[in-house]
Amino acid sequence: MDCKNCHTSLRSDFSFCPTCGGKVIRKRLTLKNVWEDLSVQVFNLDNTLLKTFRHLFTKPESVINGYILGTRKKYMNPISYFAIAITLVGVLFYVLRKVYHVDLLRGTISNNSETPNLDFVFDYQGLITYLIVPAYALMTWFLFFDKKKLNYTEHVVANAYITGQVSFVQVIISLPLFGLTDIRYDLFTWSFLLLTISYQFYVFKKIYKIGFWSTFLRGFIYLFLFVLLMMVIGTLIIVVSLTTGRLSLEDFRP
Q: What is the DSSP letter of 98?
C-alpha cells in the first residue's frame, strides 16, 4: 500500500509513514472513528496543546528550551501556539465590543471628547501583536545579553510562547469577568499587564536560572521600555491613520 499523503510505498505493518509521519488509515470513515480521532486530538488532556499550556506554567523552561534544542513533537510549536491564542483574542475583542458592549477606550486619553476615537485599532489587534513580538524579543534579548545563553531568534521563540500563554489566560479570564461584572477595561488592562510582565520574567528566571533581585531589576527596566514602546506604537498608529485617511487633522481640533 502507498501513503495517502506522500505516496511512499509502505509495509503492511506500518502505522505511520516513515517519510512524512502521516498516520496510516486502514478503516473506512465512520462516526465512531471520527469521534475517536477527535477525542484524542482535542479532548485528551495529554494532547500537545493542553500539555503545552499546562507546562508553560509548571516548567516553562522545559517547553522553551526543549523546542530550541530540537524537541519538536512533545509540545506545540511556538508559531502554532501563538497563532491559535491570538485568533482567540480576536474573538474575545469581538465579544467585548459587540456582545458585552464594553467601552475599550474608557479612561484613556482617546476617550476624551476632544480627541479622535481610535476604537478601530482593535480590528487590527492580531496584526499588531504579530508585529510587536519581535520588539518584545529585542528588549528581553538586550536585558539578558550579559548571560549569553539565548540569541535573538531564540528570544523570539520564548516571547511567542509567553505571549500565546498570556493571551489564552486573557481569554479565559475576560469572558466571564466582563460578562458578569462592570469592571473598567483600562483598570483590567493595567492589572493584567503587571501580571503578564511578572509571568514573563518568571519564565526567564527559570530559563536563565538567576536570582529574584536580578530578575526584578530586569523586569523593572523592561516595564519602562514597554511604556516607551507603547508610546512609539501609539504615535505610529496616528501617523498611519492620518496617511490612510482613517483620521484627519480636523479630528484633533478642540
A: I
- Give the model's pLDDT for residue 196: 97
Q: Which of 225, 38, 241, 250 is nearest to 132 (CA)?
A: 225
Distance of CA 241 to the CA centre of its chain: 25
Please give the pLDDT value at position 45.
Answer: 47
> Which set of grid coordinates corresponds to residue 203?
519564565
CB atoms within 10 A of CB 150: 22
Q: Facing residues of 16 across strands?
A: 23
| Eight-class DSSP state of 245 | T
Q: Check whether 113 has a pLDDT greater than 50.
A: no
Q: CA-based angle 173:170:178, to the nearest 5?
A: 45
Instruction: Give the pLDDT confidence score for residue 38 in this predicted structure.
Output: 64
d(CA 209, CA 145): 14
Task: Give dist(CA 216, CA 225) in Å, integer.
Answer: 14
Contact 118, 110 (CB under 8 A): yes
